[in-house]
Inverse folding.
């Protein structure tokens, strides 16, 4: 096994966790594990080649992003923006059936929750953006375009030496925020933001099948894999993610998340899990504050 240590991607950073998973999605030979340090870091391995080289070779280009089924004018199947009518969503899903990246739809939206305007609901990892960047694909393409030299930027990101760029990114990374007491702009690592999108592949979103147009009492909360509601429902839902010691490919991670129960820490060792975290939501400063961000809390 050829191994690449990634000190720049600690497990406590949810975007880095998603990015590390995204690496396994982009290349089937890349496997992911985590160090057993007090602050576990990403470890990428491959049985045949240097995982860094594999990831650099599989870095998505503009053509790949343009072919994602959530692209605004994809395959001339309507126009997809932030507000998506359920009929348009169904048309997209039908056209994307069998597509390699069909998960881009099922991991960001669901027609199992339809609001009173007949629009599908978005996943927790697909928050609304400010101003004119309200839909995820627009944000992805924008931050991807900030990577000038993928190989050099990737190496810097993995090493913890990434040069951040002024951008909102996907829109949920707490580390992009400045002080709430000043007008500091948002800064992100475009490598992590781009790869984090591909990490969503194993996190589908669902709902209760409720349609607010038919049932005013319908529960429109989405259910995205890894997100858990507090027992009393008083706290916002939070995403839970683990660190494990054995190198796993995309399908192994998929299986692990099915078997792992965050509420039963005495069983974690049997799955090779040595630590886990959950998200803590950014507390908005008022009704006009549209900021969305997730910090981390050690379980």
């Amino acid at each position: 096994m050829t191994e690449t240590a990634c000190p720049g991607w600690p497990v406590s950073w949810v975007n880095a966790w998603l990015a590390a998973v995204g690496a396994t999605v982009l290349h089937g030979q890349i496997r992911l594990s985590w160090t057993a340090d007090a602050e576990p870091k990403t470890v990428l391995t491959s049985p045949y080649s240097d995982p860094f080289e594999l990831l650099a070779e599989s870095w998505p280009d503009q053509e790949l992003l343009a072919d994602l089924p959530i692209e605004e004018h994809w395959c001339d199947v309507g126009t997809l923006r932030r507000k998506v009518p359920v009929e348009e969503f169904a048309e997209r899903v039908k056209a994307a059936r069998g597509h390699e990246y069909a998960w881009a739809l099922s991991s960001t939206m669901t027609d199992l929750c339809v609001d009173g305007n007949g629009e599908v609901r978005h996943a927790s990892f697909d928050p609304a953006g400010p101003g004119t960047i309200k839909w995820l694909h627009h944000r992805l393409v924008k931050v991807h375009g900030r990577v000038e030299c993928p190989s050099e930027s990737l190496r810097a990101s993995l090493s913890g030496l990434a040069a951040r760029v002024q951008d909102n990114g996907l829109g949920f990374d707490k580390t992009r925020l400045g002080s709430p007491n000043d007008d500091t702009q948002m800064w992100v690592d475009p490598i992590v933001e781009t790869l984090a999108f591909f990490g969503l592949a194993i996190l589908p979103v669902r709902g209760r099948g409720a349609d607010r147009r038919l049932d005013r009492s319908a529960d429109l909360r989405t259910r995205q894999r890894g997100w858990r509601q507090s027992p009393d429902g008083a706290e916002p839902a939070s995403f839970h993610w683990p660190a494990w010691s054995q190198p796993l490919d995309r399908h192994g991670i998929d299986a692990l998340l099915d078997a792992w129960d965050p509420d039963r820490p005495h069983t974690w060792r049997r799955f090779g899990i040595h630590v886990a975290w959950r998200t803590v939501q950014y507390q908005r400063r008022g009704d006009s504050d549209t900021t969305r961000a997730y910090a981390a809390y050690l379980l």
User: Anything to note?
Assistant: The first strand starts at residue 2 and ends at 10.
